[in-house]
Amino acid sequence: MKSPYVFTPGPTSVRENVRLARAQQCTNPDLDLQFYDFYKGTCEKIGKIIKTSNPIYILSGEGILGLDSACASLTEEGDRVLVIDNGVFGAGFADFVKIYGGKPVTYKSDTTKDINIDDLRRFLEKDSDFKYATIVHCDTPSGLLNNIDKVCPLLKEFNILTVVDTVASMGGEDIRVDEWKIDIALGASQKVLSAQPGLTIVSISEEALRVMENRKKPIMGFYNNLTIWKNYYKEKWFPYTMPISDIVSLDVALDNILNEGTENVIKRHYKYGNAVRKAILEYGLELFIEKGQANTITAVKIPEFIGCDKLIKHMLEEYNVLIAGSFSYMSGKVIRIGHMGENADKDKLTYLLSILEKSLMDLGYNKKNKSLVEEFLKNL
Ligand SMILES: *Cc1c(COP(=O)(O)O)cnc(C)c1O
């Protein structure tokens, strides 16, 4: 299989040392007690990145497993759950809540802006009878970054547990699980962390665990039951055989971040996100997001006469560069540039933008006297 240059908003590029880590000889992760320490160490590295002392678990399964598990473990028949929806993944939580017999109440908000805190407060003053609330930090199909630093503490004022999907932001944006009172934070290996797809990451607060353990009826399922991890280290028992090669490579990807420094990595994402956005605007194109733009992804509106599908196909077929379109209400309207993790990089983005610029011109876009690449470099 020929691999294109990948600039999708996850999976993203994987550094060579992470790829090679997978080739290591591996031990039996159930029986070799060394592995329990290794696994715990990897989880603790994630804790440093998202600033929490809550326990963290790495589960075998792509990011969706985290969303599914959080809803499965918390939801009981008839529970009211507040689903904060200003994006595709935001809305999608309602489906998981329903599967487990809960009653989702959707709080709809502008899909081009982060949450208006005063409006949410007014809503909660009238109705706050929710077991938990769900919100997405970075809603990947649009690149909207929600202000969870304000939303989560507000929800906790009303005694509502907070479940946050940080899959597309973990590593690239500031996340303070403890300070912002995030009961469950969900992540995945293949986005900003820049490892291969296959792993879910979950951090669980004491309060969330207590609620799960005090259910009237048991959790429906095993794979999605977050309470089974609690004593894995003490009892030296994993619920199932851990995908050791995936975890060994994730560990290297986390070291890549920690060696650069968590704060430096966040700054790097801002630097390149900001330069991409400015270049796009200078080049005469428009951004989808008006307020609350993620630094990991940029959704760019593409004029109808060019067409998103045509542009994406052209870039892949002519130049072997893979970017993404979007779906739902953005389908056919935007392309998405992933500048997350390993792709938040000067050389890589210079290359991508030069191919994007060339492709736009091939398809008849003509922005005289401006160069996308030059604008990008100027704004670094
Ligand atoms: C990628 C992602 C997930 C995981 O879902 P996929 O099946 O990989 O699409 C969940 N939430 C968000 C916000 C994501 O970006």
Quickly describe the structure.
The protein contains 13 helices and 14 strands.
Describe what you observe in this structure.
This protein is α/β, with parallel strands linked by helices and 380 residues long. The protein has two domains: 5-9 and 261-378, Aspartate Aminotransferase, domain 1; 16-259, Type I PLP-dependent aspartate aminotransferase-like (Major domain) (Aspartate Aminotransferase, domain 2), CATH 3.40.640. The chain has helices at residues 16-21, 34-49, 64-74, 88-99, 117-126, 148-157, 206-213, 232-235, 244-260, 262-282, 308-319, 346-362, 372-378, and strands at residues 5-6, 56-60, 80-85, 103-108, 132-136, 138-139, 144-145, 161-165, 184-188, 199-204, 286-287, 297-301, 321-322, 334-338. The strands form four sheets. Strands 2-10-9-8-5-3-4 form a seven-stranded mixed sheet, with helices on both faces. It has a three-stranded antiparallel sheet with strand order 11-12-14, with helices on one face. Helix 4 links the parallel strand 3 (80-85) and strand 4. Helix 2 packs across helix 9, helix 9 (244-260) packs across helix 10 and helix 12 (346-362) packs antiparallel against helix 13. The chain starts with a strand and ends with a helix. Pyridoxal-5'-phosphate (PLP) is lined by residues 10, 62-64, 89, 136, 140, 165, 167-168, 188, 191. Pyridoxal-5'-phosphate is lined by residues 10, 62-64, 89, 136, 140, 165, 167-168, 188, 191. InterPro entries: Aminotrans_V_dom, Aminotrans_V_PyrdxlP_BS, PyrdxlP-dep_Trfase, PyrdxlP-dep_Trfase_major, PyrdxlP-dep_Trfase_small, SP_NH2Trfase/AEP_transaminase. GO terms for molecular function: alanine-glyoxylate transaminase activity; L-serine-pyruvate transaminase activity. Keywords: Aminotransferase, Pyridoxal phosphate, Transferase.
